[in-house]
Amino acid sequence: MNDRIARAKAGDETAFLELFESIKDIAVARAKRHAPNQIDDAVQEMRLRLWNALDRYDGRGDFRTWVGVLFRHVAIDVNRKEQRRTRREARYGDRTVAGRSPPEPLSRLLDDESSEALSRLIESIPSETCRTAVRLRYVERLPHREIARRLGVKPASSRVYVHRGVRHMIRTARRLNLIPL
Questions:
Q1: How far apart are CA 114 and CA 19, in angstroms?
Q2: How many CB atoms lie within 10 A of CB 42?
Q3: Residues whose CB falls within 8 Å of the CB of residue 145, separated by 6 or more in sequence, listed in order
Q4: Is the pTM here over 0.70, yes or no?
């Protein structure tokens, strides 16, 4: 394992992936214990943090023990982040842009799914992913978790796509004088 650690520290991605696979049992165990609702996210974050922290391992102690402590901290961080997100959703609901509703004039357009202006604004969004996210959010009225599932991304990413789409729609609506500056 020491050879693999040395190669991974030197930047060998194959050696790093082999190393991670050899200690993945520790990652999964820590994730199950400290972030049971976010196991996959926690393991991914552990892989990233290990890649970034590997240079700090000096070889004095047992590698698996060092990794276990690192992974425990990561799992706790992931769990805290999920708890904050859950509290925020409970407090503010599933609002769109960073916990805020869209500007009032645009909100009126978004409330009328059949609006020709809304269709034009949505079609003006250059990114297909953002356009789809906005359509799912405001036309089909889906929550971010469902949008994320359909897009194959995390809920945070679906929020970003909706935010970017809405931001583009606001600029376009102002340019077309559909909403006041």
A1: 55
A2: 27
A3: 155, 158
A4: no
pLDDT single digits (tens) 9-41: 998 999 999 999 999 999 999 999 999 988 998
1.10.1740.10, 1.10.10.10, 3.40.50.720, 3.65.10.10: CATH of 2-92 = 1.10.1740.10
Supply 83's token pair. Answer: 């708890």
